[in-house]
Amino acid sequence: MYQPKFVWESGLWGPTPRWLSPPNIAVIERLSRTHLRLPDDCDLVATFFAEGAFNKLYTITVSERLSSQYIFRVTSPVEPFYKTASEVATLSYTREYTSVPVPRVIAYCSNAKNELGCEWILMERVPGVALGKVWGDIDFETKSKVTKQVAGFVKQLRGIQPPFVAIGNLYFRADIEALNAAAYVVPLEDEKYVLGPIVTTYMFAGGRKLRVPRNLGPYSNDAQYIAALAAVELGEVKLLQSAESRSHGDFDEDLAEISGDIAGLLDELHTISSSLFPSPLLRFTLYHHDLSLANILVDPPTYEVMGIVDWECVGTRSHWEDTYPLFLLGPEIEEEVEPLDPGDKDDARVEHWENWEKMKLRLVFDQQLTEVQYKGDGLRREFREQLDWLGVSPKKVKNWIRDALNTFIPQLKEYSGLLIGAPLLKEY
Hints:
Blueprint: E1 6-9, E2 16-19, H1 25-35, E3 44-51, E4 55-62, E5 69-75, H2 82-97, E6 105-109, E7 119-124, E8 129-130, H3 140-158, E9 169-172, H4 173-179, E10 186-187, E11 193-196, H5 222-241, H6 253-257, H7 259-276, E12 285-287, E13 296-298, E14 305-308, E15 315-317, H8 347-369, H9 377-389, H10 394-413
Antiparallel strand pairs: 1-2, 3-4, 4-5, 5-7, 6-7, 8-13, 9-11, 10-11, 12-15, 13-14
Helix pairs in contact: 3-8, 5-7, 7-9, 7-10, 9-10
């Protein structure tokens, strides 16, 4: 498949893609005009709005539609076809089967063989402001109100019926068939959609993983999913150890030096995974992994949630991976914290108070969902996190493995029924 020219450049958190030239604004305006079905004499302007690790966003303003704006998102080819196609299908599916407020897609192209030379999506711009712009100025009662709304949306995603029977990403059946590739898919009751290959940054971040064999699923159980993640990590290690890898632009000397340690730790993690993921699960939920302050849009006067954005790489996962939204994550605080005095800007006190608030808001979130945790959920999440830490701190992973083998795994094995998801008595 054709890809526009871009390079992976080393950064603080590993290689990231850099465009060798920015997308052509004139082409963006022309495509927008065509798909919005505007006459030639109607003024349309595309202006740069924002960018992320893999995308550039442009605001599309139409003179005759001042009450409406649009977003044109251009994506770098980090996961050609699949990232764009799955996001569009996921937005459509979510609009059809839930009341979660998501952008309406107007048009898209999930391949780079077009006049822009990139994959793109044209969608309606959701009104409101990012929650992060107002979060620090609102009281706890208002934060609780927002948290309850978000919890309600998460409950809808978790409650989609019938449950998904595999781990993967949603696609339009027509898009997959038009790809003319031997992609394995799982059909859904709604024949317009299928579950297909997973899209996750773990499988492509850094660029090297795009050059090793990858099993993208969909996976029928957790064991297959975890094995696929570990296999691509091992493939990257072997690539770094090869002689030809040193001449490639994405070669990482530091990572190559610890590649042997990473391979050994993967073997040790494998021994643990058989205890944590031994039996197939048949129920998976649609999981938005990036419910951050930046991706929740609210109406400033009322603080009603107007939209949830950034659905790239959103797919189906097991319940243990679907935990609290990012904006609620933080440490547990054992002793009650004194409220901040007006105007207190001390960083340590502010952070401590914010963590206290987050802990109380997690209780609000739990009360809305009225769901039980399951034995081993926390340990499974920790195991998954170790795969992310392998290239950053092998020592940290080594210590976690030691504690898991000496403490957590033996304790978990004491419970009968653990492996079929018995309700939680104590969270590890």
